[in-house]
UniProtKB/TrEMBL annotation:
<dbReference type="GO" id="GO:0008703">
    <property type="term" value="F:5-amino-6-(5-phosphoribosylamino)uracil reductase activity"/>
</dbReference>
<feature type="domain" description="Bacterial bifunctional deaminase-reductase C-terminal">
    <location>
        <begin position="2"/>
        <end position="177"/>
    </location>
</feature>
<dbReference type="Pfam" id="PF01872">
    <property type="entry name" value="RibD_C"/>
</dbReference>
<dbReference type="InterPro" id="IPR050765">
    <property type="entry name" value="Riboflavin_Biosynth_HTPR"/>
</dbReference>
<dbReference type="InterPro" id="IPR024072">
    <property type="entry name" value="DHFR-like_dom_sf"/>
</dbReference>
<dbReference type="InterPro" id="IPR002734">
    <property type="entry name" value="RibDG_C"/>
</dbReference>
<protein>
    <submittedName>
        <fullName>Dihydrofolate reductase</fullName>
    </submittedName>
</protein>
<dbReference type="GO" id="GO:0009231">
    <property type="term" value="P:riboflavin biosynthetic process"/>
</dbReference>
């Protein structure tokens, strides 16, 4: 069975973005994208909600063509283009290409079916509401929480509406030069 792994960036006070969805205060170290590329080496699918998908899809398909981009940007762009895209959305109806799946109904069955297909890991990027919903359904196997050394005070919360305790087992951690810490957890339902 494929693992569904949530990868999320958050402030110390557990906000994934400011009130307007801005990420300006979450300043990434140069090696942060290298780290993400190590995760994509073990994955062949990306899962996101509509907003995160549209953000990813507005930049990454052509990012490798920009002048003076890093080797990690090129690598991630190529991975994104080849990865299966799984989009959870009630409003998106038309897919851009054949390697995109849009799920709007029977999310639990759809994700379970995709996880049971042969392949590598599935990475859930961003999409805090999707992360919360899938945790409630016991569908997320692991989390990488990248914690930034900043307190936002308000914004879009990482965990909201979780009604029961969900235990996490720490598997590893990595520290970056700008002070971010990536913490790898196994979800124990």
């Amino acid at each position: 069975m494929r693992k569904l792994i949530s990868v999320v960036h958050t402030s110390l006070d557990q906000f994934v973005a400011g009130e307007n969805g801005d990420f300006d205060e979450l300043v990434q170290s140069p090696e942060n994208l290298d780290f993400i590329c190590n995760l994509t080496d073990k994955a062949d699918a990306v899962l996101a909600g509509r907003v995160s998908y549209e953000m990813l899809d507005s930049y990454w398909p052509t990012a490798h063509q920009s002048p003076d981009v890093s080797a990690s940007v090129v690598k991630y762009s190529h991975w994104y283009n080849s990865a299966e895209k799984i989009v959870l959305s009630n409003t998106l109806s038309e897919k851009k290409n054949d390697n995109t799946v849009i799920l709007s109904k029977n999310i639990e069955d759809g994700i379970t079916r995709i996880k049971n297909k042969t392949g590598k890991d599935i990475l859930l990027f961003g999409s805090p509401s999707i992360c919360q919903a899938l945790m409630k359904l016991n569908l997320i196997d692991e989390c990488w929480i990248i914690l930034y050394p900043v307190v936002l005070g308000n914004g879009i919360p990482l965990f909201k509406g979780i009604e029961k305790a969900i235990k996490l087992k720490c598997l590893a951690s990595t520290r970056f030069t700008m002070g971010e810490i990536a913490i790898h957890y196994k979800v124990e339902y």
